Amino acid sequence: MSGLDLTVRIGAMTMKNPVMVASGIFGYGDEFKGLANYGELGALVLKTITREPRAGNPPACRTAETPAGMVNAIGLENVGLDVFLRDKLPAALEYGTNIIASIAGETPEDFAECAGALDGSQVAGIEINISCPNVKKVGMSFGVDAEASSEVVSAVRGATGKPIIAKLTPNVTDIASIAMACEAAGADAISCTNTFSAMVIDVEKRCPLLAAGTGGLSGPAIRPAAVLRVYQVAQAVKCPVIGMGGIWNARDALEFILAGASAVAVGTALYADPAAGNRVLGGIRAYLEDHDVGAVGDLVGSVRL
Amino acid sequence: MSGTDASARRGSGDGGAGAQRIRAEIVENERLPGEHRRLLLKAPRIAENARCGQFVHVWCHSPDELDRPPSAALLRRPYSISRVRPPDDIEIMMRVRGNGGRMLAGRSEGEELDVIGPLGNGFYIRESLRRAVVVAGGIGLAPVPFLLQTLNSRRVQVVLLVGAASDEMIPYRVERSGTDGGATLPELATLGGEVAFASEAVEGKLVTDLLEERLGELGAEGDEIMAIGPRAMLKRVAEMVGRRLPVQVSLEERMACGVGACRSCVVPSTDGAYKTVCRDGPVFYASEIDWERLDP
């Protein structure tokens, strides 16, 4: 047993280590049951839900593999708040670690209603998806604007005492200003970052490959760009930052931590290696031991310029 | 269609539960006619539990390199289980086209593959099934040997109809010797059952033409059609047969997670919802699919 301190605090939520699973990747959790020890991780963020069920984008082509990445345009297909609370959340809680719900909506009131309903549940925290780039009306309009982002965070803050995390889009000119607005409105943490808006074209058919036309790029291809966004956000806010974007191994995760992330989330890598989060966690432990660092918190933001 | 009610099967079929992730040794990696490849894998826990029509999700790179992100073939690739060789081995078969297939083609015997499976809902073999007409187009042949194995072990009479654009588009040797002008695939015929083959290039026929010729003799209570291949073919089979007898179809779609989480591979269903090919399928009753809304 090592004396390493891996714990991370986000508002009232304590995570036993800084490794999380990113929203959208992991479904509602039960789909991956048995493929890795997910209870070992610090927190699991489930697929974004909305108040009402959503069918999502046309089902013709929703995902495309690209060099070191993938572009997806699922369109927030989800079972809706009621089914989530009744069927999905209880199954996810069986993992025995922090379960974080992710919410989206078309108005600040939608977000608040979801947050209010989750307030009495056993979720450890609520992530506000103001940044999903796939849906024309939902989300995007908030995340690209500091004032709109602030309104959504305020509405959620007013509806719940749970820790709230604002998940930012990188598709903005000045991500730090959005992060500051979210923090000022009551966010306990910032998730950085969602996917980069992207397009893949089928040159034979001369039309977009994805049925939705455009989608969001994730995977190792975006990692250096995401690390920079985390660095910029961490410089601007006092609250914890959760870094994500193409993390594949422990060294990737450590880049985010050194840039200022208190915790990290693994996403696309889980589709190749369902135990990617566990592998990253093991690698972080090994790094801390090899470098005589007693607490992961000591590394946060310690990049030397 | 009593006894074949789709919802009854759905109720019991959770196409991801019980899947195992294992390191499977490549026992054989053989080149087949055309650009096809057959891999024999030592995968005991998958071989034991697999049902025909299910698939495995394969990481195409070395399992020793999982910690290094690849630039190509980042996602796993789904492959139908082509055959089970008890007690330990499974076969997968592919047409080598993209990055993943090329990578697998280059892997050596004795190396290991990171494989998750068995995944999805396979073919439902009802107790009352007496005769199955299996309709396969092109690489839709991949799961057929396993299906024939299963049907024969259940003493179901098999008629296999196979079609392809040309002989090179299927992984088997074609034999054209009969005076009736018909072609057959001897390697599949040895698995039991009657096998008819038509290529558009030589016979000038589609597999649906072969089915049409036989349709008149079908319709008994114990008859059923099982179709695997391109969507246009599956749709045509579903339209041709209508409600005269049950039709099961195996669908393909781009996948990312393979376990029903990412919602990449959804298809429109007649109940209005989207179903995942990976977890609700890949095998569905034709009556479950909204063919009008299904992307071609």
Description:
The complex is a heterodimer of chains A (305) and B (296). Chain A is an alpha/beta fold. Chain A has one domain: Aldolase class I (TIM Barrel). Helix content of chain A is 32%, strand content 20%. Chain A has an eight-stranded parallel beta barrel, surrounded by seven helices. In chain A, strand 7, helix 2 and strand 8 form a beta-alpha-beta unit. Chain B has 296 residues and is of the alpha/beta class. Chain B folds into two domains: 17-119, Beta Barrel (Elongation Factor Tu (Ef-tu), domain 3), CATH 2.40.30; 122-288, Rossmann fold (3-Layer(aba) Sandwich), CATH 3.40.50.80. Chain B is 18% helix and 30% strand. Chain B has helices spanning 6-12, 44-49, 99-105, 144-153, 186-189, 207-214, 231-241, and strands at residues 20-32, 36-42, 55-59, 77-85, 89-95, 112-119, 131-137, 157-164, 194-199, 223-228, 247-250, 266-268, 274-276, 283-285. In chain B, the strands form three sheets. Chain B has a six-stranded antiparallel β-barrel. Chain B has a six-stranded mixed sheet with strand order 9-8-7-10-11-14, sandwiched between helices. In chain B, strands 12-13 form a two-stranded antiparallel ribbon. In chain B, helix 4 (144-153) links the parallel strand 7 (131-137) and strand 8. The chains are: A alpha/beta (305), B alpha/beta (296).
